[in-house]
Amino acid sequence: KRGHGPYQPHEPGYGLEQPAYSPYEDEIPDPQARMLAIKNAKAYLLKTSTKSGLNLYDHFANILTKILDEQPTNTVDIIEDISKDVKCSQFRKKMDTLRDEHFIPPTFQAAEKYKALFVKEGGGEEEEDLEEEMGQPSLPNVMETAFYFEQAGIGLNKDECYYIFLALKNLINVQPIQTCRFWGKILGLEMNYIIAEVQLQEGEEDKEIAEEGEEIVGEGEKEDEAEEEDEQKAKEAEPPKSTYKPPPEIPKEANGTGTNKYVYFVCNEPGNPWVKLPPVTPAQIVCARKIKKFFTGRLDAPVVSFPPFPGNEANYLRAQIARISAGTHVSPTGFYQFANEDEEEDEGADTYEKNPEFEPPPVAEMVESLATWAHHVKGILKQGRCVWINPSQKSEENDEDEEEEEEEGEEQQEERGPPLLTLISEDEGMKDIPAWTAKASTDLIPKYSVAILQSNRWPGAYAFASGRKFENIYFGWGHKYSPENHTPELPPPAQAEFPSGPGITETVDPTVEEETAFKAAQEEALAEAEEWEDEEGEDD
Amino acid sequence: MEVQSLPAALALVAGGGTGLSPERRAALGASLPLVQRDYRFERVWFWGCIQGLRGAYYIAEGLGPDRAAPRSRLYSLNCLDWSLLTPATKEMLALAEQVKGRFQGDPSFDYSLSEINAEAAARLMESDKEPVMKEEARLVATIELIDRAAGIVPRGAFVKTPLGAVHENRHFEGLPLAEAKKLSSYFHLTEPVNLKNKTLLEKADLDPSTDFLDSLEHDIPRGSWSIQLEKGGTVVVLRSLLWLGLTFYHVPMTKQFGYVYFGTGEKNLDLPFML
């Protein structure tokens, strides 16, 4: 029995104990009994819980205080949550003897980094010096490009664009750069890459080659020491060395030509220091065509794949950038022309210049016909270079034996690619998907619309043209589109140990009769030979 | 993502490079409230855009009082005139998974089924229908597949009432930064599949009002989500690697979250090779 105390009018037990009162009387009974009932109820509410040390009376008081302070909407629907919250907040204060570590969210560090971008170049004297220098590097107007791409719904949000703008300005101040362009953004699993396409000033490229030469010399010295150790070991018994000679390595293109025409700088976020990507080798491009891997966002991450990629993620990134540039960088036809007209037919043409007599066709024409756009980057051949090189030419430096072997081997066919300023209407589609999709940015206001080109082979590559302005950009994961699923290359067939010949092929052992017959035949031959020699000896 | 928060949301999702042009944004702001009025939806979400070869489909979803009920889907070619799509049936889903290649951009385009699935073609021919699949059907089936595989919400954003209906949790204040980096703090907003397979110990810790959906932890293949903190932790962006183009954003400690799809509408079946 619970023992509530005297029952109140609204309670079900009311009036049953005292026959004088009936449940239908409205008259409030003796006020003393009512006060007693209230005190009992309050005492019950103030009973402390054995588990948590809270009591219901204080808890309700806190809840009501919180509700009246905050006045949320539809309180009755969220009352349980409010109650839970109040309990939790109580609990923490009582149990907490340790103070929380002062948590510095990474937001503030990032904000500091972005703020550092906004530093203005200082000093009036420095500005005068800059003007005197020839060939001031051109900072691209990233915001203007972003505006045009935004008309098509492509691009990053304006804040990020501006940070990239400032980061490019820093890059130009730090590195000796002639021209600079925002190439695009490649997404990765953990972090993304922001890529700038840059042409260094002419003197600087030679410096780089010299530096690379020094590095190779350093490695050569180490190799000599290693060889001495090997010779000592060679005097001990060693297993037979393999006679496998790998096919000659195709040399990479010189800096400033072909696939290495531009130098690329990357960073993970605007505000981070720019990192230069190494030049790309044909072997890397050939391998990159066979694999399909996500970028993680760290340049030193290994690329685990089959066929094994010769390099780490920085090289893979550079190879993909080279492929995307070669496949999707376009400009309105006629914007660029060859320096000499003779060079048009020569596939070695690598240089082009702006055509001063270029008349931009109207936007409607640029959208309708793909012949109004042309590639201005040379396509990459199967070999992995833009200009074909015969690998067997290198064998002149090696031994003569090797030269003979290679001449007997296959003669590689000279590869020809499309010449430099080909129209994109000649790009092949995949099955029934055209290589490019062109559209105008808006149908409603044709006067100010911009012609937009989307690549279907490299999803994420876009180009726009509006009057004399045009630009290419890439936003995506960095992979080519293929209608079929990606099939990795199969491992090569198992190497034959040695060619089968008569010396090692199994034959049935000769039977006894065959052996005796053979022996008899041998003795006859021997006897004949002796007679013949005796005859000769008699002649002398 | 909600219509009202569309501009801010698009700015947060723009890290992937694709978004909406100002014309489309303005058109959405004008047409989606009208859709809400005409179809009497409680909420209208802009789902995203599927790029076809010759045009793009802009998709919106309408929700009723129970947020977990099957949603109505509408598509438009210009963000102004919206057409309701018939809900996807199981057969449509099965067929759509087998259709390969890009969307054409023309809703009445026919995919010939004889190439894709001879059995289905035979069945349709027997019942005197043409053995074709319309692009509209493929569209709605693709949207359903993407929603099932990659439509996600933060934990605690939705509550299940004792009657079974699902509502937004008005008491949801956002995930704290530490929780926002974990995959287990995000749920698929579809019928749960893995919940029953949890051990009793795990189930004891769950709160049935908020933990009634599948979390992302056990998605197959593992690693099919990429979590990034942009701007130093101001925004958490999750990108699906199985359906390239689906981006989910959430600003920790606030109520802002949403997902949108900008892509070609094709599943990335090469994912196991690419990880």
Automatic annotation (TrEMBL), chain A:
It comes from the Eukaryota. GO terms for cellular component: radial spoke. The keyword Cytoplasm applies. Keywords: Cell projection, Cilium, Cytoplasm, Cytoskeleton. Pfam families: Radial_spoke (PF04712). Residues 1-25, 214-256, 391-419, 485-512, 521-540 are annotated as: Disordered. GO terms for biological process: axoneme assembly; cilium movement involved in cell motility. Residues 214-231, 397-413, 525-540 have a biased composition (Acidic residues). It is found in: Cytoplasm, Cytoskeleton, Cilium axoneme. This is RSH4A protein. It comes from Copsychus sechellarum. The lineage of its organism: Eukaryota, Metazoa, Chordata, Craniata, Vertebrata. The gene is Rsph4a.
Automatic annotation (TrEMBL), chain B:
One of its GO terms (biological process) is axoneme assembly. The keyword Metal-binding does not apply. Its main location: other. GO terms for cellular component: axoneme; kinocilium. It comes from the Eukaryota. Belongs to the flagellar radial spoke RSP9 family. This is Radial spoke head protein 9 homolog. It comes from Copsychus sechellarum. The gene is Rsph9.
